[in-house]
Amino acid sequence: MTASILRSALRRSGSSATASSYFASRGFASAPSHERKVAVLGAAGGIGQPLSLLMKLNPLVSRLALYDIAGTPGVAADVSHINTRSEVKGYAGDDQLGEALEGSDVVIIPAGVPRKPGMTRDDLFKINAGIVKSLCEAIAKYCPNALVNMISNPVNSTVPIAAEVFKSHGVYDPRRLFGVTTLDVVRAKTFYAGKAKVNVADVNVPVIGGHAGITILPLFSQATPKANLSDEEILALTKRTQDGGTEVVEAKAGKGSATLSMAYAGAIFADACLKGLNGVPDVVECTFVQSTVTELPFFASKVRLGKNGVEEVLGLGPLTHFEKQGLEALKPELKSSIEKGIAFVHGN
Ligand SMILES: NC(=O)C1=CN([C@@H]2O[C@H](COP(=O)(O)OP(=O)(O)OC[C@H]3O[C@@H](n4cnc5c(N)ncnc54)[C@H](O)[C@@H]3O)[C@@H](O)[C@H]2O)C=CC1
Ligand SMILES: O=C([O-])CC(=O)C(=O)O
Fold first, then answer.
1. How do residues 154-183 score in pLDDT, each as one tens digit?
2. Where is the Lactate/malate dehydrogenase C-terminal domain (predicted)?
3. Which ligand is nearest to the CA of 116?
4. What does the DSSP assignment read for 300-334?
5. How confident is the model at residue 23, as a pLDDT?
6. What is the pLDDT of residue 27?
7. Residue-level pLDDT at 31
8. Residues of the chain with pLDDT under 70
9. Rg of the Cα trace of the chain?
10. Among residues 34, 81, 211, 321, which one is catalytic?
11. β-bridge partners, 178
């Protein structure tokens, strides 16, 4: 999906758009302006590679640092041949992590192990908690002002881990830490458009809560364009959105979890962060952040992004009885995942 392939695809579809305007029409900004460095940690992985490709296609990026424990020289050499704005460099191994991070405006973290069939996201905690902790220690040291986009699972725990690490280094700014829940929104939009028989490009659906099972709560009552769906249809759409990750894990049958759709979602969210940093007004995405919207210290909801990251955590809006029940049901699990992350950093 290089720029030229995109251009010929667009020509075939009768459009005269360029790759840049292709992305602009899908929520990617088009006008290069500020110098912006983006680092991808875990760049040689299933998500990392296509995400690196998509970030290379983003005209808002001027420098792209691709870091992994191994394999990044190849990925970086490959991606660097694409004739778009950013300068690409690959970094491999601990001793190159600092250089990869230095000067970063946005750090995207898809480092860590993915699920196999039969596992929950929480089963990844044992391995991924340590990976995320050590990467966040390096972020605290080398680019404490960067916006951190946490993809590594379990997001409900890895985001609190990051917050505690940053606090212990005296650099925690809640406006700069995000759990990436965009894939839940991407799925909710796709599934809703299919059921409601509306143009998927016009669809908006907020998804709140967290990023695991029932903690993922799509608010189909607020979906636009409006459609007259039955309670049974809403229930089925809600369950499918909550189980979307598992649907992919089972289909991949031991070969990992969502990578391509996640790379797309991660690229959309990073682009929103860059737009916010660059002063584009009214950039709103659902994301898992420090929050006072409920009694839980972290919660996913719509967030307005700006020059310092989170500008405003937006409220939940009116909920149906079904959604209120879902909200109450998710709280105990989300609370314990958050507490598990916090306890991990304090050695409990
Ligand atoms: N937030 C979300 O919506 C989603 C999150 N995920 C999560 O993303 C993570 C990555 O998934 P995949 O890319 O499929 O896994 P993968 O195994 O294909 O890639 C992970 C990469 O991380 C690297 N890595 C491991 N330790 C590292 C370290 N200390 N520093 C830098 N890189 C390191 C590995 O070398 C590997 O290249 C998983 O935890 C998965 O559960 C996956 C899909 C959606
Ligand atoms: O399900 C998984 O393990 C990966 C993930 O978070 C998702 O696809 O939403």
1. 999 999 999 999 999 999 999 999 999 999
2. 181-345
3. 2
4. EEEEEEETTEEEEE-------HHHHHHHHHHHHHH
5. 54
6. 47
7. 55
8. 1-32
9. 19
10. 211
11. 149
Q: Is 208 in a helix, a strand, or coil?
A: strand
The beta strands (E) that lie in 8-95 are given as 37-41, 63-68, 87-92
Backbone angles phi, psi at 258, to 5 degrees: -60, 130
Those residues whose C-beta lies under 8 Å from the C-beta of residue 159, and which sit 6 or more positions away, are 150, 177, 178, 179, 288, 289, 298, 341
Token couple for 135: 């990467």
The closest of 223, 204, 210 to 298, measured between CA atoms, is 210
Residues in CB range of 218: below 8 A, 6 or more apart:
184, 188, 205, 206, 207, 237, 238, 241, 242
Active site residue 211: yes
pLDDT given for residue 348 in this prediction? 77
**Alpha helices (runs of H) in 204-258, residue ranges in sequence order:** 231-242, 244-252
Beta bridge partners of 148: 107, 177
pTM, entire model: 0.93
d(CA 300, CA 285): 10
In whole angstroms, what is the distance from residue 275 CA to residue 280 CA? 5
Dist. CA 115 → ligand 2 center (Å): 8
Indicate whether residue 261 lines ligand 1 (CB < 6 A): no
Contacts of 225 by beta carbon, 8 Å cutoff, 6+ apart: 196, 198, 202, 203
Asked if 236 and 182 count as a contact pair (C-beta separation under 8 A), the reply is no
Determine which residue's CA is closest to atom 22 belonging to ligand 1: 111
Tokens 């069939």 belong to 117
219 CB-near residues (< 8 Å, 6+ apart):
205, 206, 207, 208, 316, 317, 319, 323
Which pLDDT belongs to residue 24? Answer: 52
Look up residue 199 and give its two tokens: 């143009």
d(CA 220, CA 238): 8
